[in-house]
Amino acid sequence: MKAIDIPVFQPRLRVLNRQQALAIHAAALEILETTGFTMEHPTALDLLLGAGCRVPGDGRVRLPSFLVEEALNSAPRQIVLYDQLGNRAMPLVDENPFYGTGSDATFVIDLETGARRRAVLDDAAKFARVVDGLDNISFNMSMANPDDVPIEDIYVHVFAEMVRNTNKPLVFIADSGRDMARIYEIACVVAGGEEELRRKPFLLNYSEAISPLRFPQNVMEKLIFCAEKGIPMCLPSGSNAGGGAPVTLAGALAMGIAENLVGLVVHQLVGKGSPFLFGPNVSVLDMKSTVVSYGCPEWSLTQAALADMRDEIYGLPIWAYAGASDAKVMDAQAGAESMFSIVTAMLCRANLIHDVAFLEYGTTASLEMLVMADELVAMSRFFVEGIPVNDVTLALPAIDRVGKGGPGSMFLMDDHTFEHFQEGQFLPRLLDRSRYDSWEGAGSLDLYRRCNAEARRILTEHEVQAKPAGVLEDIKRVLEGG
Amino acid sequence: MPDPAELYDAILTGDAKKAQEVTKAALEDGVDPSELLQKHMIPAMGEVGRRFECNEYFVPELLIAARAMKTALVLITPHLAEAGAEPAGRVVIGTVQGDLHDIGKNLVSMMMEGAGFQMVDLGVDVPPEKFVQGVQEVEPDIVALSALLSTTMPGMRLTVEALEGAGVRDKVKVMIGGAPVTAKYAQEIRADSYGSDADAAVSEAKRLLGLS
Prior knowledge:
heterodimer, A: alpha/beta, 2 domains, five-stranded parallel β-sheet, 18 helices, B: alpha/beta, Methyltransferase, Methionine Synthase (B12-binding Domains), Chain A, domain 1, 9 helices, 5 strands
């Protein structure tokens, strides 16, 4: 009989034990039953009241925990995002991590001048094209909040620009139900109809409730729209420790989760079985600068905690962040903070991981950061594969051959090396390991400048498969329709 | 009957067995060995070098290509000698006295062989007088010295001095290389050249002999 393969341990980060997870969940339920929340959308409020919520004299909605249980039962355990060509691209479930960009940076680092300047629509196009050309970046979010389109239609234009410049899945922002409907119209054009889009969704909406515990009209409009149409969505509030939420991480998590559960309950009441990506954003409000940090260890820690709670309790795929920084330029701080969040997001098996390529706590977008992150994700991916242990990898025949071989015998020349070096080793492309003279000879380029060159190369060489002319025409029509 | 042109692909993909077959068949068929070398083998190694330069090939791919090249070279060398054709150059190589490391030296040796040099490998822990003896016997174009440790680098200086003492220094070019070695050190000990890695060693050897 053939020996049974030795299973491979794949490094996995856990930060909560079961008791901690259950206690945070219980706290979230208690927040909903005792403190309650403000629901500013009348239809959503009616639905909640009809389902068993009550509103005492203070006007705040109290939500009984059985509604949470029901919503958790009806929401799908897996959300599959397709690419815009109809291929299965991102099965968001269990241990699958996917990385992508963020949205609404008002500034970009100019690829030509290196200067920080106001973002324009063409920047959204550039980010989408570079995302399209990177193997380890799975989805696109607009990055740029452009200065050169009418503010009331900003998200429609940005969505159209993404569609024109990448075929990868899209995470998108809308302001309210109004622009959401137009974005949906464009998405239907791309997918070839409403039914096709429902069957193979290539997009996911990102909306935010307002911490603490407030659900505005426009936000709930979007949530109801997505629930009705079966568009996958998430509703992370900014329950940042010390800002929108208490300064201690457990309380911030409990409150952020409570807010998410409200979203989930309304969502499932509107569209039972519609896909909802779970999870709050729990970073920290920096106690000196008052910015919400994008490079802090706390955010990585809270999303690892959320991954544990997914496994212990919720069973829903989760929303996360990585690959961003508080640094103003792509320096050592940017590299350190990016890698910290990228590898921990991978180690905790977060599912949809956004905000890759942000500098300046999410205010500035950098193509160089994006290109660097692609390699850091690959590096992390290699790490979590672990060490396969079997006859081939133990390589005893190779050790025997080289060990017993005469002078000149070496592993570098052995067939085993040739056959396995490609998968046996992580082979970096941008992280430089060349000898000093070669590095100097190539212009002494640091990582920032190598990433700059690579981003330019992708923009010049990578061809994005163009949408059919009819689709582009229809998109233009939607945009002009106003 | 295999086409001699298949030798190009055999070397490029490091298929030593195929390289051997094609070369044998071509020689039996009366194909001119220098034509095999010039038209198929050298261009193949040129392409291997190009792919390495632009990061398509890694060192193991380079080495097995060199090994395939060597398999073919072994077969055609006697014929080349008959026809009076010479190798690109003759090189005596070794790791200097006190140093037992051979991976770097082997790597350089293999790559130079792939580039058409005839290599005479003296091994590791080679005392200066053995290098002198090697030079006297082999009459090489180049002596290549390797050291991995800063503590064994003085063996390089002693070797150069021994070559000078024996009056053969001006008959050969001396190349040095290894982790602690620098171009400045090469200058200090009156060596002719320094290669920062195996690839650079090949280009330096070609440059020293006016082949590039």
